[in-house]
Amino acid sequence: MDWLDEFYHLSSALTDYKVVQLKGTGVGEEYLDVLSTIIPQDILSELFDCYRSLKVQNSSKPKEQLIRDAILCDAKLGPVARNIIKMWYLSIWYQMPDDWRQQFGKPNQGSPKYQDVQFVVSRNAYIQGLVWEALGSHPMGAKQPGYGTWSDKPTDKGSVISTAS
C-alpha cells in the first residue's frame, strides 16, 4: 500500500502545516521510511484508517478535538502520532515509550537501517525541521539568512517570542 499521500495528510493535521509545505521540505518520504520501518504495519494501517474515518465524520466538534480524542489520546496510536509531530518539527526519532514497546512493539523492532532508539533522521531533515520556521530562525550552520541581515529588525510571525520596543 502506498501510504505517502496518507502520511502527508495526517502529518498536515498533526503539525498544522499545509500538505504542500510539508512536501516542500523534501523529507516526507524519509520520515515515512523511518516510521514504517520501526512501527508495525498493522498499527500504521490502523492509524491511517482512523484518520481517514475522522475526515469523513460529520461532527460538530472541531477537527483538532476529533484528532485529540481519537488519535492522540489513544494508548496505541497516540505515541506514534506524537513521534510523527516530533519528527517533522525536530527531525529526531524518539524511542517509543517502554510500555508501548512492550504492548505493541515487535521483537527486534527496526532494522539495521533504523532502530527504535533516539536519532536525528538525517542532515537534510535537520535543516528542513519545522521548528526553524516556527521560531522565525534558521538551523545553525545551514540556511544562513545572508550578509547584513543581522541589522534588519525581526519580523513577528505570530510567535510567542516578541521583541521589546
Blueprint (SSEs and pairs):
Layout: H1 4-15, H2 19-25, H3 28-38, H4 41-56, H5 63-72, H6 77-90, E1 92-93, H7 98-104, E2 119-120, H8 123-128, H9 130-135
Antiparallel strand pairs: 1-2
What sequence of helices (H) and strands (E) makes up the elements?
Answer: HHHHHHEHEHH
DSSP strand content? under 5%
Q: How many structural units, i.e. domains?
A: 1
Biggest sheet details:
2 strands, antiparallel
Query: Structural class, from secondary structure content?
Result: mainly alpha
Outline: globular
Helix coverage percent: 40-55%
Structural Rg: 18 Å
The total strand number stands at 2
Query: Which stretches are low in confidence, meaning pLDDT under 50 for 5 or more residues running?
Result: 159-165
Average per-residue pLDDT, rounded, comes to 85
- Quickly count the helices: 9
User: What order do the strands of the largest sheet run in, or round the barrel if closed?
Assistant: 1-2
End-to-end distance, in Å? 54 Å
Short description:
With 165 residues, this protein is mostly helical.
Task: Characterize the structure shown.
With 165 residues, the protein is mainly alpha-helical. It has one domain. 54% of the residues lie in helices and 2% in strands. The protein has helices spanning 4-15, 19-25, 28-38, 41-56, 63-72, 77-90, 98-104, 123-128, 130-135, and strands at 92-93, 119-120. The protein has a two-stranded antiparallel ribbon with strand order 1-2. It is globular, with a radius of gyration of 18 Å. Residues 159-165 have low confidence and may be disordered.
